[in-house]
Every structure is written in C-alpha cells, then in structure tokens.
Amino acid sequence: SLLWQARFFTTVNHLRDLPKTQIPEIAFAGRSNAGKSSAINILCNQKKLAFASKTPGRTQHINYFSIGGAHVGQHRKDPTIVEEIRGLLVDLPGYGYAEVPGEAKTHWNALLGAYIQTREQLTALVLIMDARRPFTELDVQMLEWFAPTGKPVHCLLTKADKLNRTESTNALRLARTVLNSYVDEQGKPFPFSVQLFSALKRSGLEEADDKILSLLGM
Ligand code: GDP
Predict the structure, then answer these.
(1) Residue 62 in contact with residue 46, Cβ under 8 Å?
(2) 24, 32, 146, 170: most buried, per Cβ within 10 A?
(3) pTM (2 d.p.)
C-alpha cells in the first residue's frame, strides 16, 4: 500500500504553525486509548510511526506524516531531491483524558475545533472509536464540528476482536443510525462510512486502506 511509505513530516502545537501546503490531508481523531496509534501504525505497516501519548497534557501535538514523497534532505540516495508528497496523514491529539489540566484541555479543544472546522486542505476525517463504547461526548463534539463542513467522515470501530458476531452487527447498525442523524450546513446528510477494525487481528485493514487512499484522491 502507498500508506506504507508514510514517514514523519512535522509536529504542530499551534494553528499558526500548520504547514502551508496545497497537499490534501486526512485527519485521524479519537478518544485517548481508542486505538488510534495502533490503527495508524498498522495501516502504515510501521511499528512506531504514531505513538500513544503516555504523558497526558504534555505529549499532545498534531503530528503530520507524509505519503508518496520526501522532504529536502530526506531522500535516501540524493538529499537534493524533493519528491512530490501526495498526501498527508494528520494524527490529532487524543481527547478525553480525565487527568489533563483544565487549561491544557481548553487549549486542545480549541485547537482541534478550529483545525477540523477551518482547515481547507483537510479532505476527510477518520474517527476512531472503541467499538464497545462509541460516540462518547467528545466524539459527538467532533462530529458536530465536522459534519457542517460536508466533508466525508470514515469511522473505524476499533478493537472489534472484543465483539462477537451479533455485537459487531449491532455496533455497525448503531453507528449508521447515529451518523445518519447529522446534517451539513444545507441540512443535507453528510457523507460518512463506517467499518469494524482490529489492529490486533488485522481485520478491516484492506477496507480502511482503500478508503483512506480514495479519500486522499489516490
Ligand atoms: P490511542 O491512545 O488511541 O493511540 O490508543 P493505542 O493505539 O495506544 O491503544 C490503546 C490500547 O488499546 C493499547 O493497550 C492497545 O494495545 C489496545 N488496542 C489497540 N488496538 C486494539 C485492537 O484492535 N484490539 C485490541 N484488543 N486492543 C487494541
């Protein structure tokens, strides 16, 4: 997969530092511990591309990974070569850490909200939710911010290995029902898709890979 070429691009702490590019980007959002880093790593076939934030409130950044190119100086053979970067994966800070101090929480909520509502280069959102407890308050907040943009959302219901067949079917059905209730600015349903995923069992990998690449126009 093209995603296997993903490599670290940049880290951002403030909106003003977002990369000034024309490159389409797709953002991964999710509650802390939902399985976002595991999903990104497995999709990119790399062990430690995305890392779980072990120190809440301190290690939170927006991390960018590039696909299909290299920066100046990063090309393996010729450091003067700048290959064309075709897409960016954006790892948003996990939300919902109870222990994050109020001030940091406010800072990150504001940053996340502003980013997903206003970032023009953002083509789609991948919302990572634990299949056993989807649509927490902050997941809903993300959807309420993002749905009005009318851009597509792809939901990964992770840790699907913890569900049996009936629970899986029910989880998908519930997710579709909830997602159907959101509308864009014109009051039209916004484009969404949803799937089960397990980093542990590597299930749903191909579906997610296809979806992400197609959302990036690849
Ligand atoms: P993040 O905080 O959203 O980045 O979550 P992580 O990817 O760090 O995962 C949080 C915890 O859930 C870790 O202990 C992972 O091993 C576990 N985990 C992640 N994905 C899966 C999965 O598909 N199945 C199971 N059973 N556990 C998972």
Answers:
(1) no
(2) 146
(3) 0.92
